[in-house]
Amino acid sequence: MRVVKTLCAVAVLQLLVGAVQAKCTPHSLRLAVIPIKSVEDMTREHQPLIERLAKAAGVPVELVVSSSYESVVDAIVSGGADIARLGPASYILAHRRDQRIEPFATLTLNAGPYTAAGSHYQALLVTRAGGPATLSALRGTRVALSDPASTSGSLVPSVEFAGKVGAPLKGYFAALVYAGSHDKALQAVLEGRVDAAFVASERADAYLASNALAPTQLQVLWRSAPIYYDPYVFSASLCPALKTKLRKAMLEDPAALASFVASQNATGLVAVGHKQYAGLEKMMEASQLP
Amino acid sequence: MIRRYLSSAGLLPLLLLMLCVVTLAFLWGLHFSQKAASRQDALSAKAAEHLNLASIVGENLRQLVDRAQAVGRVTQDDMLRLRQGNLSLARVLAEDPVFKRMSLYDHNGRLLSSSHADEPGQLPQAWLEQLQAHVARHGFKAFMPATPAPTTASALPDWRLPFVLPLTDISGREVDTILVVQLDIGYLAVLFQHIDLGRTGLMRLLQDDGRERLRIDTSGVVVAGDSLVPSLPDKAEDTGQLTQYSLTGAYQSLYRRVPERGFSVVVSQRNEEILAPWALAASRQLWQNLAMTLMILASLAWGLRLLRKRQEAFAELERAQQVNQQLIGRLEDEHRRSSHAAATDHLSGLHNRRQFVEVATQALAQQRGKRRLLAILFIDMDRFKSINDSLGHKVGDLLLQAVAGRIQRMLDPGDEASRFGGDEFVVLLAGERSEEQINAWVRVLVEKLSATYALDGQEVNTSPSVGVSICPRDGQDIDTLIRCADAAMYSAKQAGRAQYRFFDPSLNLSDIQAFTLEQAFGNALAERQFVLHFQPQIRLDTLQVIGYEALVRWQHPEFGLLYPDRFIGVAERSGFIVDLGWEVLRLGCEELARWAARKQAAHLAVNVSALQLRQADFSERLLAELDSYGLEPSRLELEITETTVLDPEGTAVEHLYRLRAAGMGISLDDFGRGYAGFAHLQSLPLSRLKIDRALIAPLSNSYDDSPIVSSTIILAKRLGLEVVAEGVETREQLVCLKLAGCDIAQGYHFSRPLSQAQLYEYPPFTGAEVNACA
Hints:
The structure holds 2 protein chains of 2 kinds.
Chain A: H1 2-22, E1 29-33, H2 39-57, E2 61-65, H3 69-78, E3 83-85, H4 88-97, E4 102-109, E5 120-121, E6 123-128, H5 135-138, E7 142-145, H6 151-165, H7 169-172, E8 175-178, H8 182-190, E9 196-200, H9 201-210, E10 218-223, E11 227-228, E12 231-234, H10 240-251, H11 258-263, E13 266-271, H12 278-286
Parallel strand pairs in A: 1-2, 1-3, 7-8, 7-9
Antiparallel strand pairs in A: 3-12, 4-12, 4-13, 5-11, 6-9, 6-10
Helix pairs in contact in A: 2-10, 3-4
Chain B: H1 2-82, H2 87-95, E1 99-106, E2 111-114, H3 125-138, E3 160-168, E4 175-184, H4 185-192, E5 202-207, E6 212-217, E7 220-223, E8 239-246, E9 249-258, E10 263-270, H5 271-274, H6 276-343, H7 353-369, E11 374-381, H8 384-391, H9 393-410, E12 416-421, E13 424-429, H10 435-450, E14 453-455, E15 458-460, E16 464-471, H11 478-494, E17 500-502, H12 509-526, E18 530-539, E19 544-556, E20 560-562, H13 564-574, H14 577-597, E21 603-607, H15 610-613, H16 618-629, E22 636-640, H17 642-645, H18 651-661, E23 665-671, H19 678-681, E24 688-691, H20 693-696, H21 707-718, E25 722-725, H22 731-740, E26 744-745, H23 756-759, H24 763-766
Parallel strand pairs in B: 16-17, 19-21, 21-22, 22-23, 23-24, 24-25, 25-26
Antiparallel strand pairs in B: 1-2, 1-4, 3-4, 5-6, 5-10, 6-7, 8-9, 9-10, 11-13, 11-16, 12-13, 14-15, 18-19, 18-26, 19-20
């Protein structure tokens, strides 16, 4: 039904598109976010941010929680969204398709059981307490990933972990299960539906905290090198003046976004640029990932 | 009884065993059939569920694509105008959770318009060919193009699912443009994440040629999972069920084919997981059954054990029974042997009396049942006593054995012989004999037993006296028959030696009794069966009891108290009279001695038989006897009968004189009955005269009858004798006698004869009463 509505709307919208692009005053802005949590949680948590951005831009801001990382990449690249929260790797993918995609902010994370305070996190390979305790014991088991375009839930493991064990994930594990999000991957490993999961360290912290679980319930068998955290990016089509307004809104008054920042297990928002992800980009190029 | 129980005890365990086997067979049969049925039920239920799921998913997917096609058909012209990289389409799609990208190609596959800039400019040739084939078969329907398996192992999976949507021209006959829409696999993963497929549940999307395009389980999208074989059957039906296998095990797969859209949806789950609840229930059932089986077997074992114990107990009982039987048998043997010994006369080897009576009673019943005669022979050997005395007991015994042998040799089967003791034999003749034949048989017997016996080198001659009684003529029972035969034998014996007599019914039974008494006399004397009774004698002028007459009685163990008239004759005939006389005298002396101790002055009158008086030493012996008791002769009075006077040798008279001289009173009994005349009275040393009761009895009737009595009294007085009247029974008699001058009287008028016990309570005797007539 939604599809039909959507497609029917195409005809109506097409007339307006040219005008939006030309002016720095669009009718609305769209913030696309990767599916970190459930749509409801994402919508609720981002509400303060949406409101602040709308206030700054002077137009309504719409939140789109996509089903997959790739959708967000597609959206920010094709102009389907104006601002996006991407994972580090998906940012690289988007940047690769359009150099004008610009990261401008990221979160500084709280310290957690698995993550040091700051803007870096790590990809973890976790198993249940009492589950396989060594990497070799994991060979031939089922492993959960998040999304094919997730940094710590797919891309980094498929490069770094594959490099470490000397085999592609598909070969090393019996089955790869793309759970869709880090939380689902953690849930799968805790419920025993999979034997291990590649997850982001800060997502593991958040999951344990929100579900009141002890860190001892999980054991970490592998950690990736530190990865710079998820960037908020502007699409190529967004006019510079608007970018400045939005950047200011996000970065210059930490108190205004305190509740949002807290909901993301972070201490604040800081500016970020492409160079922070250059290392990741190099790694991805070296491994010839898409 | 025990036999029957044992056989049922053998059958019972078998029945129990069979019952158990049947119960167990039923239990396990039911278990297995139910197990199979419930397993099938579990699989079927899951199959129906999964088929529904596959159908819903397939239908959902089809409708998604169909609607995209419908919209595409309407908006294809607009799409054309939008061209590549159109921003607004991109914004619409960015919001859409299902479709990621849309591209429009012309019918040759060249890109006309696209939502994203990086779409390929030309559709793969394979897709165009598939489109042609698909349109030819299914019309202008959207479909999922088959893609070849990726040749290189790409690190990241393709997260888009393309569909080809043919859009027709106005006429609807030709493919005008081709719309390619790409579904977000993430959307499908989210869509199905809440469907509980179970731990091993899988949903797979297969393309037309069977290649797996997408696999989703409860955890998410699975890449590089185990492949499942075999693949779906070729084009058979749109829905179906099959069992597929992976490395980990068997899966039950339900598929829904959507051939006009070029895909199939397969929902699979490991049999193991589907059957887990069933397996749990089945294992629980199994344990229950095992427990029940154990219980049944335990009960069986217990039951069999119980039965075996009972059987053992019964076997033991039977064994004990057998032992008892043996013991009883042995006892019976012993009894038979000992009773045979008890039943046999050891000397002759014949039956003894007891056994004979027993045997004869049976034989009598049989003979009477057959209406045949039965004869009892009572045999007594003549002169046996003298043979025994003269030739010795050894020869006597040999003679008895020889007689027994001769009798026995004459017996026919069914006849019986016995020795009753001494020289008495009793023979029973059964068989079918007439009286003549019996008579002949007895005659022969007498002849044979009379033949000379050679015993221990000596020739002995003797003969039998035989009495014969016959049933039914003479009696109906053995005792009577034996008594009759005995009586007949007695008469035979009286008839002389080697005689036999048949019992004559006219023979008085009292004779038989007399004979019996005679047989018992010696024994009676030895055992002191005789007693004295006492009848008072009253002096008429003073009415004082002056003495008592001793009257002998036989206290017979069988017949009771017998009076002298029953046995005196017997005693006289058999020669026991002398011994009896002495016994009476001895009893009299004893009594007098007791009286002396009681200071009783009365005299005692004792009857003495003529035979006794003829004994040479009578007077000496009697005086010695009195002396031994310390008695005065005057205390005793002898009563003699007139027959004593007829003693030709005068021995008796001499004894009487001596005794009279010693002071003993002598009275003549029964005067007036016999022949004794007054002539003899003078020759005898009498002191009293007793008038016979036959003279006294008429006194009461007529006063005129008294001359004989009164003259007798007068005469006796003249001779200086006192007169005693016997049998005084009435007052009239007493008056007569007193008038006639009689001195002394005795009779029922005064007192019946008294037993010793009565005497000791008799007032005149005790001295309590002076007058006897009071």
